[in-house]
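name: query_chain
kind: protein
chains: 1
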Amino acid sequence: MARLPYPDPASLPPASRDLLSGLPPLNIFRMIAGSGPSFVPFMSLINAYLNEGILNAELRELVILRVGHLCKSEYELHQHRRVSRTLGLSEARITATTDALPSPHFTAAENAALALADDLTANVKGKASLVAEVQKHLGDAGTQELIIIIGVYLLVCRYLETLEIEIEDKDIEGSGLDEIKRSLSQNV
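structure:
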């Protein structure tokens, strides 16, 4: 059971209630909707890289899985394994996010991004050599987006684990990446 009660949607401010009503009924969304004025801007940030980001969706999901694994966040891993499968990632690539790097299952750019995710999960300041390697593959804007995504999912994992948010009893129909992207693009 979560450490805090899930808020009653009727008690939420109108903007939060409207945004929540357009999202799949995932426990993370149900809980974070009660975070006051942080909810709508946080979801706007998520929307920015999901719908307008420059990174390849597979690379983004591999990095999210790596951060979820390193943070031991079962909820995050459960949800993003599902998302990764909907994107067409093979089980071998999904599983390899828990293995030592570099991995033959990943491209040079993916290995570089995952190595930076490892470093930033363990340290506040990423190693210059790792940032340079990522920059070589992703460019300046891609490197910045990657660092933001790693940071966002470090926050999300800590949020999920600290509040002990439960995995839903069953997978929510239509709660895949496309529905979340569509909901965010229409509501934030």
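note: The radius of gyration is 16 Å.
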